[in-house]
Amino acid sequence: MKIAVISDIHSNREAFDAVLKDIESEKADKIFCVGDLIGYGPDPEYIISKIRDMNIPTVMGNYDNAVAFGMTDCGCSYNPGRETEVGNISLKWTSENISDEYKSFLKTLPYTISVNIENVKILFVHGSTLDNLFEYVRPETSPERLKELTENISEDIIVNGHTHISMARHTHGKTFLNPGSIGRTKEGFPKAVYMIIDIKDGVFSYEFIKIDYDYRKTIEKIVSVGLPNELATVIALGNTYKMGKTDTLKTFFI
Ligand SMILES: [Fe+2]
Predict the structure, then answer these.
(1) Which of 60, 92, 158, 249 lies in disulfide reach of 109, CB 3.0 to 4.6 Å?
(2) In this structure, which topology does domain 2-237 adopt according to CATH?
(3) What is the 3-state secondary structure (H, E, C) of the chain?
(4) How far is the CA of 15 from the centre of ligand 1 (A)?
């Protein structure tokens, strides 16, 4: 059985459509999503409607949770100043551009999903097993922390999103996978990233797939709907960008 795993679409219609087309060509049997359907991009309702209408099993992301329950903070790691300002504008705009019907749908998303596919057990969660919405499980997360995240977990694979960086780590008898981000990658190119997991009789293999899409169109839409230019910059770079006088790349706008 072949499953496609997608994450962090962030209201990017062009990227999502390109990935759905590719998943079709891969002939995947099923799609799972590890959250953050919305935020930062110009097409939030389109993404929610597709996920709902295609019955794609999806866990709650931190941004989905913030909009669903009317929070003023998405739990994103912004630095003080302009970063926080842009983050706040994005959350307000997204919330104002999603109808109550779609917010009701977001409220129904579970925090975790567990499946058994051909004798491989998989747990899907946006953040981590101990902090479902907010913890970043990164390529540099310590082995000690990964061990804590595997305690009392019976699944073989733990899939998380949230970092916008694809990842595969094998430790303490578990496999941690992150499919990367469809709509707001931080891997240094303006592409949509997702993952295919192939499973047969208790054995699995995985592949990360990077798809070209019309990101210029997304950028134009971000600007034309009145979202901050900085949000378009992140899409164009496929990464965070330099702020002010600092010359180190910040990790924000996740
Ligand atoms: Fe995200």
Answers:
(1) 60
(2) Purple Acid Phosphatase; chain A, domain 2 (3.60.21)
(3) CEEEEECCCCCCHHHHHHHHHHHHHHCCCEEEECCCCCCCCCCHHHHHHHHHHCCCCECCCHHHHHHHCCCCCCCCCCCCCHHHHHHHHHHHHHHHCCCHHHHHHHHCCCCEEEEEECCEEEEEECCCCCCCCCCCCCCCCCHHHHHHHHCCCCCCEEEECCCCCCEEEEECCEEEEECCCCCCCCCCCCCEEEEEEEEECCEEEEEEEEECCCHHHHHHHHHHCCCCHHHHHHHHHCCCCCCCCCCCCCCCCC
(4) 14
